[in-house]
Description:
Blueprint: H1 3-8, H2 13-19, H3 24-32, E1 37-44, E2 50-57, E3 64-70, H4 78-89, E4 93-97, H5 116-124, H6 128-143, E5 148-157, H7 159-170, E6 176-180, E7 197-204, H8 206-209, H9 212-221, E8 226-235, H10 238-243, H11 249-268
Parallel strand pairs: 3-4, 3-5, 5-6, 6-7, 7-8
Antiparallel strand pairs: 1-2, 2-4
Helix pairs in contact: 2-11, 3-4, 6-7
Amino acid sequence: MNTLCLMLLTVSTTFMFLTVGVEADEIKTELEESPRHGEWVEITVTDERKLNAFIVYPEVKEAATSIIVIHEIFGLTDWVRLVADRLAADGFVAICPDLLSGMGPDGGGTDSFESGDDVRRAIRGLSADRVNTDLDAVREYVSGLPSTNDKVAVSGFCWGGRQTFQYAVHSDKIAGAFVFYGSAPAVEDVPKITAPVYGFYGESDNRINATIDATKAAADAAKVTYEPVIYEGVGHAFLRRGMMADASDTQKSATKAAWERWVKLLGDL
């Protein structure tokens, strides 16, 4: 990592998003050199099944709000772990489960698959019940830590955004849901949601955005808080794209705005 990147480790996360992008090797370096405590943990889902997760703790004096970070269809990547680390830099306990734990070769997780196609195929095969059960276990684990308060939020990107929305339907024990360009549940399921849902969408992503109006109408009718924001000039996966070294100014700006909104909403839960 160059001198500028090392210096940026000492400033706010939001400023890093605005100032510098990251390549794959820089992501690894930033994770390795993070001043925050991050570790892999094993969470018991059932007597027969364990779930691996990466958790990062903030450097704070009081018990912190925690947030579950659900990965994209690419599985638990270093980029997702970097997001968790940067959330911790902003004061939250962030935990990202590998929802492919035990499904890879020799019982491995995401990093045990031979190709990205194999990862995506395995993720598409996950049932809603399995994902919700796994997320229940993660929520129970993180809420039981002595360093966390009673607020657990959930978030996710693309496939993980969809799982976030679905988990808000499933669970009445979360403080908030943050959906990054993930598809919505069926409108008839929206009234089951008890936590506020905040949406983050790219303007050029009509595959996802075409359902926003119907979801909003269903939420308003059921008095469910659903606040979608569409970020101009960007498309799907804009948060990740805006963090990359080759990101355009528009992508960086959208990422910065989304991150600032995310952190403020988390702090207000």
